[in-house]
Design brief:
By secondary structure, the protein is α/β, with parallel strands linked by helices. Helices cover about 40% and strands about 20% of the residues. The protein has helices at about 10-20, 25-30, 55-70, 80-95, 120-125, 140-150, 190-205, 225-230, 240-255, 260-265, 275-295, 300-305, 310-345, 365-380, 410-420, 445-455, 480-490; strands spanning about 1-5, 75, 100-105, 130-135, 155-160, 170-175, 355-360, 380-385, 395-400, 425-430, 435-440, 465-470, 500-510, 515-525, 525-530, 540-555, 555-569. The protein has a five-stranded parallel sheet, with helices on both faces. The longest helix has about 35 residues, at about 310-345. The protein is globular, with a radius of gyration of 24 Å.
C-alpha cells in the first residue's frame, strides 16, 4: 500500500478560512475541490433546476394527464436500496400529488432477474395498470418496454444507469446519462431522479391551477429517503448530491422521517438524532438491501411506506434478522472466495490484472458484497459468480463485479462482449460496479477475456493500492468536539471521509476477538487508543498509519480513538 497525502490548494483553503470556515474543515474541503464557501451552501434553492434534467417536463405532462384521467399507475422497482427508496418516494409523492391508484411491483432477483423484462411487463398489464413507471432501472430494457407498449401501457422510464447502444422506445425517458441530457449531476441516484420527476410534476400541476405555490403539497419530507438511497448506492457525492443528502440528514436529526426509517435506526442500534452518512451506508442500507438479496424487496419497500408504527417496527426487525442471515452466508462465501483468489496470487505466479471467482455453492444474492471484499483485499477488478436459481436457467451464471479507480467496469464488459460474442448474455452497470450473466461453459473464457482487458488498461501504478489521505493531524485537533463536527458533515463516494496519516509510536498492541488489532499509540507525544478492524499482523514500534477519527465511550466518558485504515510497512 502507498499512502499519499492529498494536495491542498493554499488559496482555496485560505479563502474558506477567511469566509469563516473552521481551519481544519477549510483544509479538508479545499483538498476535495471546494474553492469558495458558497459551494458549501446546502439550501434547497441551490439544487439544480428540475427542468435541466432532460425528460422531466414530458414526464410531468404524462403523469399530470394520467392523474387527471384517474388512470392506474404501476411502479416497477429495482431490488436494491436505491430502487426501494425510489419506489417509496414515487409511491408517497404520486399519492400526495393526486394519484388515486398507485401500486408497485419489484422483480425477484432469482426468478425475474434485473429490470423491466417482457414477463414483468405482462404482470403489470395483468394488474390492469395504464401507466408503467420504472425507478432505478429501464434504460437497458428495450424488450421489456416494447412488450409493455404492445400491451397498451404508457411507459415512463426513470433511471440513472449508463445506456446501451439502443435506447428503449418509452413514451418518456428521464436519465441524466442519456444522449443529449445536459444535467450537471451525472451521478444522481435513481431515487434522486424520481424526486426530480415529482418536483417537475408539482410544477406542472401548479401551472394547471390544481394548487398554488402557498397551498402546494410539500415534497421535502421525502428527502430522508432520497438521502438514504443516494448514499447506499455509492454514487459520487457531487455538489447536488451532497445537498440532497444534507437536507435529508437535517430532517432525520430533527425527527422528521418516515416511520420505517425511524424503526430501522432503532433496529440497527443507531440514534436518528445523531445520524450520519455512515449510518446510511453501513447500518440502514445493508438491512434494506438484505431483503432483495435473500428474500423479497417488498419487505424493504413496505417498511419505507407504511404509516403504521407497529408494522414499521415489525418489518424493521424482520429486515434486521435477514441481514444477520446475509452476514452469515457472506462470511462463508468470502472465506471460500478468498481461498480461490489467493491461489491466483501465490508466490511464483504472475497475478492477474482482474479476478474472477465462481463456486457452485455460492448464493447469487451475495455475490456483489463478496466481490467488493475481494477487490478490497487484492486491489483488482473482481467478479464473483453464482449459479442462477431461476427455473430453466441452471446453465447460466450470474455475476456481480466491483472495480478499482481507473478501470471502467461496464466499458470493460462492453469490450469483452464485442471481442467474444456469446460470452455475455446480459450486462450493465457503472464504472465501479456492474453485473452480467454468462453461460456456465463460458466462465473460463470470460475470466481470461476480462483479465486481458484489465492488463491492457491498467498499469503497475494503477494496480498498486493507493490510499489518499489528508496528511498529518495537528495535536490541537485531537478533540471530541471536532470528531463530532467531522461526523456530522456529508462524506461519501467522491467526497471521501477525512483520513489522516503520519508516523506514530506503537506502545502496545493486542488481538481483540481474534480478528482485530487494538493499539495504544503515541501521536505527537500524546497517548491515543486505536483499533484496526480485520487486521491481525503485529506492527513495528514506529509506523506510518492512515486513520480516521472516531469517538470511543467507556463508563460514560468519550475519548478520541483512531480507526486505522492502512499502514506503510
Amino acid at each position: 500500500m502507498k499512502i499519499v497525502p492529498r494536495e491542498i490548494p493554499p488559496r482555496s483553503a485560505w479563502a474558506l478560512e477567511q469566509a469563516g470556515v473552521h481551519p481544519l474543515l477549510a483544509r479538508l474541503y479545499a483538498a476535495r475541490g471546494v474553492c469558495a464557501k458558497d459551494e458549501l451552501d446546502d439550501g434547497l434553492a441551490r439544487l439544480l433546476p428540475p427542468d435541466t434534467l432532460h425528460g422531466t417536463r414530458q414526464a410531468a405532462v404524462l403523469l399530470a394527464d394520467a392523474i387527471a384521467a384517474d388512470k392506474r399507475l404501476c411502479i416497477v422497482a429495482d431490488y436494491d436500496c436505491d430502487g426501494a427508496t425510489a419506489c417509496a418516494v414515487a409511491m408517497r409523492g404520486l399519492k400526495r400529488l393526486g394519484a388515486k391508484h398507485v401500486s408497485y411491483l419489484v422483480p425477484d432477483r432469482v426468478t425475474d432477474g434485473y429490470g423491466l423484462t417482457p414477463s414483468i411487463a405482462q404482470r403489470v398489464a395483468d394488474r390492469g395498470a395504464d401507466v408503467l413507471i420504472t425507478v432505478d432501472n429501464g434504460i437497458a430494457s428495450v424488450d421489456g418496454v416494447a412488450a409493455a407498449k404492445a400491451r397498451g401501457l404508457a411507459v415512463l422510464v426513470t433511471d440513472h444507469h449508463l445506456p446501451g447502444p439502443e435506447l428503449p422506445d418509452a413514451d418518456v425517458l428521464v436519465n441524466p446519462n442519456q444522449p443529449g441530457c445536459g444535467f450537471e449531476s451525472k451521478s444522481i441516484a435513481g431515487v434522486g431522479v424520481m424526486f426530480y420527476v415529482l418536483m417537475a410534476l408539482r410544477s406542472e400541476l401548479r401551472a394547471r391551477g390544481i394548487f398554488d405555490a402557498a397551498g402546494q403539497p410539500k415534497l421535502d419530507d421525502l428527502l430522508p429517503l432520497v438521502a438514504l438511497g443516494t448514499v447506499a448506492d455509492v454514487v459520487k457525492l457531487d455538489g447536488n448530491n451532497r445537498r440532497l443528502v444534507a437536507q435529508g440528514l437535517r430532517r432525520i436529526r430533527a425527527g422528521a422521517m418516515p416511520l420505517g426509517l425511524s424503526a430501522l435506526f432503532k433496529a440497527a442500534g443507531r440514534q436518528g438524532s445523531a445520524a450520519t452518512t455512515f449510518d446510511f451506508g453501513f447500518a440502514l442500507g445493508p438491512r434494506i438491501n438484505a431483503a432483495g438479496r435473500l428474500a423479497d424487496m417488498t419487505l424493504g419497500i413496505e417498511c419505507l411506506v407504511t404509516e403504521d408504527a407497529g408494522r414499521a417496527e415489525e418489518l424493521a426487525r424482520m429486515l434486521d434478522e435477514i441481514n444477520r442471515e446475509r452476514r452469515g452466508i457472506e462470511g462463508d462465501m468470502r472465506e471460500q472466495a478468498l481461498r480461490v483468489a489467493e491461489r491466483l496470487f501465490a508466490d511464483g505466479q504472475t497475478p492477474p490484472a482482474a479476478v474472477t471467482v465462481f463456486d457452485a455453492d455460492f448464493h447469487e444474492g451475495v455475490v456483489g458484497i463478496v466481490a467488493s471484499r475481494i477487490k478490497d483485499r487484492f486491489h483488482r477488478p473482481t467478479f464473483v459468480f453464482a449459479a442462477s436459481g431461476a427455473d430453466g436457467k441452471a446453465h447460466e451464471l450470474k455475476g456481480s463485479g466491483r472495480s478499482i479507480p481507473g478501470f471502467h467496469l461496464r466499458d470493460a464488459l462492453d469490450l469483452v462482449a464485442k471481442r467474444h460474442p456469446g460470452v455475455l448474455l446480459r450486462f450493465g452497470g457503472h464504472a465501479m460496479a456492474a453485473g452480467c450473466t454468462v453461460p456456465r461453459e463460458q466462465i473460463k473464457t470470460f475470466e481470461t477475456a476480462l483479465a486481458e482487458v484489465a492488463a491492457e488498461w491498467l498499469d503497475a501504478a494503477t494496480l498498486t493500492r493507493r490510499l489518499d489521505t489528508d496528511g498529518p493531524l495537528a495535536a490541537e485537533y485531537l478533540r471530541i468536539d471536532l470528531v463530532d463536527t467531522l461526523q456530522r458533515e456529508v462524506w461519501g463516494q467522491g467526497f471521501a471521509p477525512p483520513t489522516f496519516s503520519e508516523e506514530v509510536e506503537v506502545v502496545s498492541q493486542r488481538l481483540v476477538g481474534e480478528k482485530h488489532l487494538a493499539l495504544k499509540l503515541k501521536h505527537q507525544g500524546r497517548p491515543v487508543d486505536a483499533i484496526w478492524f480485520g487486521h491481525t499482523d503485529p506492527l513495528p514500534q514506529r509506523v506510518t498509519l492512515a486513520f480516521r477519527l472516531d469517538a470511543d465511550e467507556w463508563q460514560g466518558v468519550r475519548r478520541v480513538r483512531f480507526m486505522v485504515e492502512g499502514a506503510e510497512l
